[in-house]
Amino acid sequence: GTDAAGFAAYKDLLRKVLTRPLNLKRANIFTLNYDTLVEQAADAEGVVAVDGFVGSVRRTFRPESYDHDLYFPAETTEGRVHRLDRVLHLYKLHGSVTWTAEEPSWENPYGIRAHAEEMPDDQPVLIYPAPAKWGEALGMPYAELLRRFAAAVVRPQSVLFVIGYGFGDEHIRAIVRQALAIPSFTLVIVDPNPQSDFVDQLKKQSDRRVWIFSGS
Q: For residue 126, is pLDDT > 90?
């Protein structure tokens, strides 16, 4: 269960994200949370969350699915197809309470499976704490999801909104620093009371591409 106000905020966020014009690339949501609040809000709003898993009964990790898209035919047989508007991409960078590991196989190359519900306490789940040292070898799907996050923010004209995150992970800070080397990148931080040294350092840069919304 989720509290009503918090759940309404998630649904409101998704509605706002989906106002993005359809001629632009799909919006990406990158989360470090393990919970399923984004997925629950997507279900409630009738939104398709492309999350890197494929399958109906057995959902397995197939990251190439992030490169697929959803269209529907036009009114006439000769007309062009149209993109479905209620679609976003979801990347759970630190794993999920609904993911479990199994032996890799032809049907499940990475050995990662997603379940419809949170797993019981006695079932090991796949969540990925930050590596002890930045640069350690990272397993799948962690490394693949981080790679896709890095690729998304270094595309020209990218805007990264950071909401409710304190920049506690060095691997995330490194990717943001990398993105700030791209002249057309914009960073928007929303935090009522920023405590992070990283945000302090950003303020000192006096970079017009960095927007920080704080206070009440």
A: no
Given a contact cutoff of 8 angstroms between Cβ atoms, the answer to whether 51 and 38 are in contact is no
Cα dihedral value 131, 135, 141, 144, nearest 10: 140
Q: Tokens 């199994």: give the residue.
A: 102
Q: Are 171 and 130 in contact (CB under 8 A)?
A: yes
Strands 87-92 and 48-50: parallel
- Distance (Å) of CA 104 to CA 15, 45, 181: 37, 34, 38
CA distance 155 to 35: 28
The whole-model pTM stands at 0.89
CA distance 53 to 203: 38
